[in-house]
Amino acid sequence: MIHPLYQDLLGTNGWQDIQQLFTVLNWTTEYVVLRNFECLPNQYHLELHGDIDLLVKDAVEVSFITNATKVFLEEYRVHYQINIAGKTVFFDFRYIGDNYYCNDWEMSILRNKELSHKGFFIPNQEDYFLVLFIMHSFINQRLLKTILKGLSLWRVN
Question: pTM for this one?
Answer without folding.
Answer: 0.79
